[in-house]
Amino acid sequence: MSQTITPTLLVLALDQVGLDDIPLVGGKNASLGEMIQQLSRAGVRVPGGFATSAAAYRLFLRENALEEKIDALLHGLDVEDHARLRAIGAQLRDLLNQAPMPAVLDQAIREAYAALPDAAPVAVRSSATAEDLPEASFAGQQESYLNVRGADAVVAAVRNAYASLFTDRAIAYRQRNRFDHKLVALSAGVQHMVRSDKGSAGVAFTIDTESGCNQVITVTAAYGLGETVVQGLVNPDEFSLYKPNLASHRPAILHRVLGDKAQKMIFSAGGGTEVIDVTDEQRRRYALNDQELAVLGEQCLLIEQHYGRAMDIEWGKDGEDGLIYILQARPETVASRSPKLSAGHFHVRAHGPELIRGHAVGRRVGIGRAFIASNLEQASQLQDGDVLVTDITDPDWGPLMKRTAAIVTNRGGRACHAAIVARELGLPAVVGCQTATQHISHGQLITVSCAEGDKGFVYQGSAEYEIENIDAADMPDIPVDIMLNLADPGRAFELAQLPARGVGLARLEFIINGMIGVHPGAILQPDRVSAEVREQIRRRSAAYPSPEDFYVMRLAEGIATIAAAFAPRPVIVRTSDFKSNEYANLIGGEAFEPIEGNPMIGFRGAGRYVAESFRPCFELECRALRLVREDMGLDNVRIMIPFLRTLDEARAVVELLARNGLRRGEKGLKLIMMCELPSNAVLADQFLEYFDGFSIGSNDLTQLTLGMDRDSAILAPSFDERDPAVKALMSQAINRCRAQGKYIGICGQGPSDHPDLAQWLLNQGIESMSLNPDSVIETWMGLHRLRDSSA
To answer: Band of the pLDDT at 788, cuts 50, 70, 90?
Structure first.
């Protein structure tokens, strides 16, 4: 019977197959062929090659009488018996690896390989007929073989690929998901290798994998072959790209994280691969530049549009021709299926000392005993509910990981195996911690928190947390806009799912502190700081064209991330409001900051911006705001000026903004001022000549009205935003804004802490209340209940 099968049915060129051929060549190879046929003219570059068919695999089994032997070994296997699973898997792989390749298939593979130009190195990858389907996708079920050279090696790699259909992880996955082993076949894809060993490679998702936001593409990148990223061998660079800007060819990079990229995988001279160290200078630079990211992002957009769904894409940059290629594309199956606007939000209320931090995967919290494992054999002793702490994981660990409460690794980025499996299983994971196995003790009770932004934390002991269940679709109408106070851009896409009307307060000082860490004076006047500080700045800014560009671009990235997450809803960005003692704590800050007895009412806010000593520093903020609003087109950004003492300061700062290209009214720009000094409310009409509205800062307004230091523990019991004098000033500010038809909101903590104050503000005609994220639902529902009770 096998003699009736012709070589043309055994091997097919990739450009001859498409999505209709999944039963023939599996999901991975069918997808490659689909992109070559349908997207290459649009600009998607996919290396060519050929694939063996499912018929070829079944011929291989029949000619070697393997079907019955496989059935017998798998019959009655309990995949939860890990020792038995390992023994059976090894026997099955030995059976296939020792079986000779049928002559007709051997000849077909050799002829297809000989037809490839230049006898270039190839990758041999496995593509199962039940793999990479929307209902059946998992990380790394079968093996890949890289830098394969010569016909003999290609034939051997195809046979190895067949055997890898019976890796322990693949057997367990099929059995748990009720795929009949007899109905699953394997196609081996033989594809030209992109010389990313001389360039870079990684993974891109056309969705934010943590929040499920579909407006961004998340990219990981490292030097060398992409296996280091997928396997979690390195901590890669990470980028977020804004899809609307990719489509309109505007700057699209919202966020970047510089990974250490300590090693890279390259070709070995005689075939195969090896891992070598990356130089310090390379490690301090991003593995892709802005133009390359745009090219990659545009190709990812085309792929997503063609498939009509979120995609998981592997890519490589050829170090010889400098071009970006797509190596694989499959449906993304976790974030795109997560329920939107109705998930539980975790809030950590109290925790023990921090042990380690890394990249957060999954916005959840897990608590358990640390189980430190250096290899799979040790990990097999892990008990249900333990927290797995290890260097890295690989697909063989998959069957064990579902028993854990959380996962912590030394190495890996958001696209590594541990991260992918954690998302699949709904587990919190903190990856890329570097020294987790040193700082966490075996058996120690720990909390793994991924609920605090893009950084994940491991705390000693059991933290206190709560879960807030939110369904934005069911929120009742109330006669006021609820907005958010937001400091951390890393939480923007997650928090954008809250039922808020926008961001009423985005604090620049948090972005400066968290993403830059350097005093702007030290950037602009390096001669005034020590050689040690200059070296710190050089190292931090090495990935950018200059220290100034580093400051401006990092600031713009933080602003843009928040603006894109909430677009088209308004985002009110407050320019920096550090006090002198806080600025002094930044790198190089001591050389530029005065020593003040009470910085709270000292050199801060607008008075700082117009001062000759600080004006050039403020102009860096203006550059960042222009980049976001004009170059990136995120014109939902509004600018808010804090701590304006006098009308002269108001006039001066508005003129300064205009000189720096931020003129009120041009390109829809709205200027808001903080109403946080008694003078602001008393002279509201005059201040409003320069601004489009007020946002009441109730903390500062209370301390300056009552003469109370808000940081004083002694005075804390008397500090109350509901004092009649404070309310009188707030009422005056609200009335004057309403009379002039201008915006009036509040961004202090008062409405969150005091429901009666929130109700009073609503009755006064406040337009918006900007709240901390953890109080949005409670305050919203409280106002609804109060309104119902008073009706």
So the answer is: low
Mean pLDDT computed over every residue of the chain: 90
Chain segment 532-550, per-residue pLDDT in tens:
999 999 999 999 999 999 9
Distance CA 39, CA 30 (A): 13
Catalytic (active-site) positions: 417, 747
Q: What is the C-alpha separation between 667 and 625, in angstroms, rounded? A: 13
pLDDT over 70 (residue 141): no
| DSSP H/E element including 191 | strand 186-192
Contacts of 587 (CB under 8 A, 6+ apart): 517, 518, 519, 522, 533, 536, 537, 540
Neighbours of 20 (CB within 10 A): 10
Q: Helix-strand-coil percent breakdown of the chain, rounded to 5?
A: 45, 20, 35
User: Phi, psi (5° rounding) for residue 288?
Assistant: -135, 140
344 falls in which pLDDT band (50, 70, 90)?
Answer: low
pLDDT tens track for 657-712? 999 999 999 999 999 999 999 999 999 999 999 999 999 999 899 989 999 887 67
The phi and psi torsions of 291 (rounded to 5 degrees) equal -65, -40
Cα–Cα distance, 478 to 476 (Å, whole number): 6
Closest CA to 235 of 418, 423, 363: 418
User: What pLDDT score does 709 carry?
Assistant: 80
Q: What's the one-letter identity of residue 351?
A: H
Q: Contact 746/729 with Cβ under 8 angstroms?
A: no
Q: 576 by DSSP, 3-state: which? A: coil
Complete DSSP assignment for 137-179: --TT-S-EEEEE-SHHHHHHHHHHHHHGGG-HHHHHHHHHTT-
Rounded Cα gap, residues 623 and 652, in angstroms: 18
Q: What sign does the dihedral 539-540-542-547 (CA atoms) show?
A: negative
Give the length of the chain: 791
Whole-model pTM: value is 0.84
